[in-house]
Design goal:
Shape of chain A: elongated
Radius of gyration of chain B: 29 Å
Largest sheet of chain B: none
Structural class of chain A: alpha/beta
Strand order of the largest sheet of chain A: 3-2-1-4-5-6
Oligomer: heterodimer
Distance between the termini of chain B: 17 Å
Helix content of chain A: 40-55%
Mean pLDDT of chain B: 92
Radius of gyration of chain A: 23 Å
Shape of chain B: extended
Largest sheet of chain A: 6 strands, parallel
Mean pLDDT of chain A: 93
CATH class of chain A: Alpha Beta
Strand content of chain A: 5-15%
Strand content of chain B: under 5%
CATH topology of chain A: Rossmann fold
Distance between the termini of chain A: 25 Å
Helix content of chain B: over 70%
Order of helices and strands of chain A: HHHEHEHEHHEHEHEHH
Chain lengths: 285, 232
C-alpha cells in the first residue's frame, strides 16, 4: 500500500461510522445462533468453589433461593435459576423460593418447568419446593427472616398459609437452612445478603450476579461468599460443572465472537489513533 | 407467551433497536410505550404487593370497605378490645401520607419528617453492618500469610496472589492518602496504585460489555426463536 493511501485508510478508520461496528456485532452474535458452534468453556475457581460447596451438601438438604431480579436481567440470570433448579432436582434438595424483587418469584415459576423438563423429574409442591413470594422491605426482610421465616412469609406466593406445607415444618429461621443461593441484579441483592445474613446469621451463601454487579461482590469471595457466577460466563461454567448444559452455554459462542470483534476494533482504533497522531505531529514540526 | 404478546414484544424490540441506526418515530413510540407501561406496572405492583397486604389488609381497611372478611388491627381494637401489633402500621401509614404532602407546596415541609425517619433508620441499620462486613471482614481477609507453604515449587500461585494483593492494597491506599505530597517513594507507590485502579476499572468495564452483549443475545434469541421460529 502506498504512503498516502495508507494514511487515508487510517484516517477513514478514525472516522468509521459507529453503525458499521453495530453491524459487525449483530453478525457476530447472530451467526453462531444458527451454526450451533460450541466453544470450549474453561471453568474458573469462583464457580468451582460454588459447585464444590453445593456438592458437599447432603442429598435432600434444605436450600433457600432468593431471586432478586426482573425480566430485564433474564438472559444472564434465568439460565442460572434453571440450572440450579435442575441440580436441586438431581440432588433431591428441598427448595424454598423467595424474592426481594417483586418479579423474582414469577421468574422462579418460569424457570421451574424448564428445569423439570431437563431433569425428567418434577418438584412436588409443598414437599420439595415452595414459592413464598415477594415481601416488601428489602434488607429488612432478610433481617426479619433471621428471627422468624414464618412471620416474615406467613403465606406463599399463591396465598396459602405456609404452615400447611411439609417442607416448611421445622423451619424457624436461617439456622434451619443449609444453603442460600442468591440471584441478584442490583439492590437489594447479594451485597445485602452478605451484610445482613452471612455476617450476622452465619449462613452459607453462593451467588449468581449480572456481569455489571459481579465486580462489586468479588471482594466478598472466600469467607463471606462461597462462590460467584459472574454474568453469562459464570452461568455457562455452572451448567458445565453441574452437567446440565443449557442456554448460557449455547449463548457463550455469540458472546465470545462479539468480544473478539470489540477487541479487534479497539486494536484498530488505537493503531489508527497513533498513526494519524504521528502524522499530524510530523506535519506540525 | 401468546402469539399477540410475541408480536408486540418483537416489534417493540425492533423499535428500540432502530435507534442504533438513528432516532426515528418508531423508536420514540416504543420508548414512550415502555415508559408508560413501566410506570403503570410499578404503580399496580406496589399497590397489590405493598399497600394492600401490608397497610390496608393488616389494619382492616379492606374489611371496612367490604372487600375482605378477615378482621384487621382496627377491628381487633374497636370490636374485640384487643391490642394487635399490626396497629403499628397506623404510624407507617401516617408517615406515608406525610411523605405525599410534598405534592402540596405549602405543606411540603412536613415530608421532611418521614424522610428524616428513613434516613435515620437506614443510617443506624447500615452503620454496624458496613463496619462489620465491609471494613473488619475485608481487613481480615486481606491479612494473609505472605508465604504459603506446601505449594508446588517454592513460589506457588497462592504466594504470587498474596504478593499482588499486598502490593495492590498498599499502593491503592497510598494513592488515596492526601496528607503527604505524592513525590518520591509515596509518589511511586501512588502511581502503582493508579495502575491497580485502572486494571479494576478495566475489569469492571469488561464485565459491563459482557452484560450488554448478554442482553442483546437474549433479545436476538427471542426474535429468531420465539418470533421467527428459526432456531431449534
Amino acid at each position: 500500500m502506498a504512503g498516502p493511501n495508507r494514511a487515508d485508510f487510517w484516517n477513514s478508520m478514525m472516522k468509521i461510522d459507529r453503525r458499521i461496528i453495530f453491524l459487525f456485532i449483530f453478525v457476530a452474535i447472530s451467526v453462531p445462533m444458527f451454526l450451533q458452534i460450541q466453544l470450549k468453556i474453561p471453568t474458573s475457581p469462583e464457580v468451582e468453589s460454588l459447585v464444590a460447596t453445593l456438592d458437599k451438601l447432603p442429598d435432600g438438604a434444605r436450600v433457600l433461593v432468593s431471586l432478586d431480579y426482573d425480566p430485564g436481567s433474564e438472559p444472564e440470570l434465568q439460565p442460572m435459576a434453571e440450572t440450579f433448579f435442575g441440580y436441586a432436582l438431581k440432588r433431591k434438595f428441598k427448595v424454598i423460593v423467595i424474592g426481594l424483587w417483586p418479579q423474582g418469584p414469577i421468574q422462579a415459576e418460569r424457570a421451574k418447568p424448564i428445569a423439570e423438563t431437563q431433569a425428567g423429574r418434577q418438584f412436588e409442591y409443598g414437599i420439595d419446593y415452595v414459592n413464598l413470594g415477594y415481601q416488601a422491605g428489602n434488607e429488612l426482610v432478610i433481617q426479619r427472616m433471621g428471627s422468624s421465616i414464618p412471620q416474615t412469609f406467613p403465606v406463599d406466593y399463591f396465598g396459602k398459609p405456609i404452615t400447611e406445607f411439609p417442607i416448611m415444618q421445622g423451619v424457624t429461621n436461617f439456622s434451619n437452612i443449609d444453603y442460600v443461593f442468591n440471584l441478584s441484579a442490583g439492590y437489594p441483592g447479594t451485597v445485602e445478603w452478605v451484610l445482613f445474613a452471612v455476617d450476622r446469621f452465619n449462613i452459607v451463601l453462593g451467588a449468581g450476579n449480572t456481569a455489571v454487579q459481579a465486580p462489586q461482590v468479588y471482594p466478598y469471595l472466600g469467607k463471606q461468599l462461597k462462590g460467584i457466577l459472574g454474568g453469562m460466563k459464570g452461568g455457562a461454567e455452572f451448567e458445565i460443572l453441574t452437567g446440565l448444559p443449557g442456554r448460557a452455554v449455547k449463548y457463550m459462542t455469540g458472546q465470545t465472537f462479539a468480544h473478539t470483534i470489540i477487541v479487534l476494533f479497539i486494536i484498530i482504533a488505537n493503531i489508527a489513533y497513533f498513526t494519524t497522531r504521528k502524522k499530524e505531529q510530523g506535519g506540525l514540526s | 407467551m401468546s402469539t399477540l404478546g410475541i408480536w408486540v414484544g418483537a416489534l417493540l424490540t425492533l423499535g428500540i433497536l432502530s435507534f442504533l441506526y438513528k432516532d426515528n418515530p418508531f423508536y420514540k413510540l416504543s420508548e414512550s410505550i415502555f415508559l408508560g407501561i413501566s410506570a403503570g406496572y410499578w404503580f399496580v405492583s406496589l399497590y397489590y404487593q405493598s399497600l394492600l397486604p401490608k397497610l390496608f389488609d393488616n389494619l382492616g381497611i379492606t374489611k371496612m370497605m367490604g372487600a375482605s372478611e378477615t378482621d384487621g388491627a382496627l377491628q381487633s381494637l374497636f370490636i374485640h378490645g384487643r391490642w394487635d401489633p399490626n396497629l403499628w402500621y397506623l404510624i407507617a401509614g401516617a408517615l406515608g401520607i406525610m411523605m405525599l404532602l410534598r405534592l402540596i407546596p405549602k405543606a411540603g415541609w412536613i415530608s421532611r419528617w418521614p424522610l428524616a425517619f428513613v434516613v435515620g433508620t437506614t443510617a443506624g441499620l447500615y452503620f454496624t453492618r458496613y463496619l462489620a462486613s465491609n471494613a473488619f471482614s475485608q481487613i481480615n481477609a486481606t491479612l494473609k500469610g505472605f508465604v504459603v507453604f506446601g505449594q508446588p515449587g517454592f513460589f506457588g500461585w497462592a504466594n504470587l496472589n498474596n504478593l499482588i494483593l499486598l502490593i495492590g492494597v498498599v499502593s491503592g491506599l497510598t494513592y488515596f492518602y492526601f496528607s503527604k505530597e505524592h513525590k518520591g517513594i509515596v509518589g511511586g507507590a501512588a502511581k502503582v496504585g493508579i495502575y491497580f485502579l485502572m486494571v479494576t476499572f478495566g475489569a469492571s468495564f469488561g464485565y459491563t460489555v459482557m452484560s450488554r452483549m448478554s442482553l442483546l443475545i437474549g433479545r436476538l434469541d427471542f426474535i429468531y426463536g420465539a418470533w421467527l421460529g428459526l432456531l431449534r
